Structure formats: C-alpha cells, structure tokens
Amino acid sequence: METKPIRESFQNILRWFVPIAAALAFAAWMYLSPEGALGKLDAIGYAVCHRIDARSFHIDDRQLPLCARCTGEFYAAGVALIFQVFVSGKRSKLPSRGIIAVLVLFFLAFGIDGSNSYLYLLKQTSQGALDKIPNLYIPNNILRLFTGSGMGIALATVLYPIINQTLWRDLDDRPALDWKSFGGLVALIIVLNLLVLTDSLFVLYPVAYVSALGTLSLLVIVFAILWIMIMRQDNSFENVRQLWLPFLSGLTLALLMILSIDLVRLQFTGTWSGFPGMTG
Question: Which end of the chain has less Cβ packing within 10 Å, N or C?
C-alpha cells in the first residue's frame, strides 16, 4: 500500500529534476562545443565518428560533421524514422522475412565495405607487414555513402516497431513497413544519396543537420526506452504528450554521453577534426 505513494512522490521529484538536468547538460554542450551551428553539429559527430577529412563530404572547404559512411548511416536513419512516423503510425510488428533478408544484405554490405575500408586505412598509415594487407577493391566515398545509408535504413526499420512495442498501451499489430512502403523508403534514400553526390550546398547543408541530429535522435530514443524500462512504464502511454519526461531524460543522458566522449577524445587528440595521422 505504501509503494504507490512513494513511487508517485519519486516521479514528482523527477518532473522537476529532469528538466533542470537537461538545461544544465544543454548549456554545457553549447559552451564546450565549437562555435557556430555547424560547430555544434561537429561536437555530435565527434563522439561517434573518426571524422577523417579525406573520407568526408565538404561544404566548400569545410568538412561535414560526420564522415561519408556515418553521414549516410545517420541521415538515412533519421529520414527513415520520420518516414515511418507518417506512414506507419503505431504499427508495432517487424517487417516480413523478405524485408528482413534485404536488411541483412544491407548490414553485410556495410560490414564488408567498412572492413575493406579499414584495412585500406591500415595500409596507408602503417609500415612493414601491414603494407601487404589485401583489399577487395579501392574504397571510396560513394560506396561509403550507399552502404552507410543502407545500414541506416536497417537500424530505423528494426528500431521503429520496437519503439512502438515499448511505448503504446494500444498497439497496432501490423508490420511497420510492407513491401510498398519499404520500396518507397529505399527509393527516397537512393534519390537523396544521388543528390548528395552533386555536392550542391542546397543539399549538403540539410544533410549535415539531418545526419548529426539523426545521430542525437537515435541516442535519445535508446536512452528514453531504457528509462521507460527502468521506470517500469512499458506500454503505459496513450499519446505523444505523455512522452515528454522519458524523452527529455533520454536527451539529457545522450548529451552527457556525447560530452564525456568529446572531452576524453579532445584531451587525447587536441583537435575537433579527425584522428591525427589518419588521412587516408
């Protein structure tokens, strides 16, 4: 009988504590990250990406917040999540086995191209026996973009129904994506990738924002779901307005994680750019 009042009191404390913690974390991130809007986005990419200049797209001479592979992965994940919000609603079932098989192919392409690219980097930055490492092909930013975006689609396609399974009291027990909507999503990402390859400023600026904010959004979602599970609030929400506390908590934890990684990396490297000595 005493458990419920204690839990309610604890939740009331959190309603005050979490917004204050979020404001402090956001203020610290704004203060410590590089100047300018793109500098703030750099601080997000810096926590998850090597940011090697030669492996990145550029706005004039300025590197995007993430490398080509991470740009593809996180912008595609962000676009795919937004796409499913409008197309799938509260649908909570994973796609069909056929679609899952395609997602596995996307994952394998990402792994193969990433491994080949990493081995090529070792050949370029090391000497001795590592010079003899075989490569399947010469890696390039076009392949990094397309294999990265395939991985982003896979992440968002699996994550979205899991989010719905965790949040909503009334579930829509249908696959979040069918073949028609999945095909539309893949076609959309392909078109956007081709636009990225034009190097148009009108494309690269939005992609810089969507990729960095897509990175942050994925972290926020993961931490928010973790928060909901710890607070034992699974399947207790009826509308979006009720989600402000867990997602604000997720934002706070995501910013703290990004700040921690940024500060550690900055301490070791002394630069907000790519790892020193890695230019391949």
Answer: N
CA distance 100 to 157: 9
pLDDT at 1: 45
- Main-chain phi, psi angles of 88, to 5 degrees: -105, -25
C-alpha to C-alpha distance for 35 and 29, rounded to whole angstroms: 11
d(C-alpha 224, C-alpha 249), whole Å: 6
Taking only the tens place, the pLDDT of each residue in 34-50 is: 999 999 999 999 999 99
Q: What is the pLDDT of residues 46-80, one digit of tens each?
A: 999 999 998 999 998 899 999 999 999 999 999 99
pLDDT at 181 over 90: yes
Q: How far does CA 261 lie from the centroid of its chain?
A: 15
Amino acid at 217: S
Q: Residue 261 domain-assigned?
A: yes
Find the domain containing 201 and state its range.
3-269
Domain count, the chain: 1
